[in-house]
Amino acid sequence: MTLPPLNLSLSLSPPSFHPTITFHLYQPPIIPPSCDLAARLSIKLPDEIFLDPDELDDKFAGSAISSYTLTKITRQGQQKGKTKIDIERPSFDTFHNQTDYVILNLNVDPRGTTPQEIEHANLNESINNETIVEIPLHGRYLRPSVKGERTIIFPDTQNSEIRGEWICKANTDSVTSSPFTIVRTEPINIILPTGKHSHQPFVELMTPLVIWSGWSWIVYKIFRLRNRMKNNVDTNHLEKKNI
């Protein structure tokens, strides 16, 4: 018996620089008795947001996520293997076009959903038929804009997508090499803060002032400490001489 396509919906935490996307996976209405159900997800993220691997380890511990990997693919879809996340760099659109995409591959065990995740489940759905997967994200530094924010559509048709399927664990080996099916779901709008164009002259003026003020304070404290140590040495030397 062939399992139906993966059905899911998305929800999002309040707008911030550290959004969390929640995946609501709805189990098939009919599952063969011999099938130990699991799900595979492959999530291509836009460059404006990124994953912190250390945070993923903490978030996924004890959740429905049985395992995950981070890989990289080219714009043409060629696999480049496992990747490390550069959490410091700005978004690619600040200096050149994006050529690679980070892929988050998830293996989901529906029985692994924790009581805390169940509390966030849609009350109109049967808890037994819904699996909750939360993905913590971070926004990258973006170009300033007029409104001071940018809206990222996820998934879109070009820079991000969700692929996945239901599988029976006993058949995992036979389907590992098969391509995932694109999951069609209602996209969400991820609002990320940016600087405002109107603030840029003020920032350009104040940034060097703050930096030089900080350095001046450090130099001042160093000289104060040096003079204090010198005075202490002179005082001790004078006291010994008087004795």
Automatic annotation (TrEMBL):
Keywords: Endoplasmic reticulum, Glycoprotein, GPI-anchor biosynthesis, Membrane, Transmembrane, Transmembrane helix. The keyword Transmembrane helix applies. It is a single-pass membrane protein. Pathway: Glycolipid biosynthesis; glycosylphosphatidylinositol-anchor biosynthesis. SMART domains: PIG-X (SM00780). It holds the Pfam family PIG-X. It is found in: Endoplasmic reticulum membrane. One of its GO terms (cellular component) is endoplasmic reticulum membrane. Its main location: endoplasmic reticulum. One of its GO terms (biological process) is GPI anchor biosynthetic process. It comes from the Eukaryota. InterPro entries: PIG-X/PBN1. Required for proper folding and/or the stability of a subset of proteins in the endoplasmic reticulum. Component of glycosylphosphatidylinositol-mannosyltransferase 1 which transfers the first of the 4 mannoses in the GPI-anchor precursors during GPI-anchor biosynthesis. Probably acts by stabilizing the mannosyltransferase GPI14. Belongs to the PIGX family. This is Protein PBN1. It comes from Kwoniella dendrophila CBS 6074. The lineage of its organism: Eukaryota, Fungi, Dikarya, Basidiomycota, Agaricomycotina.
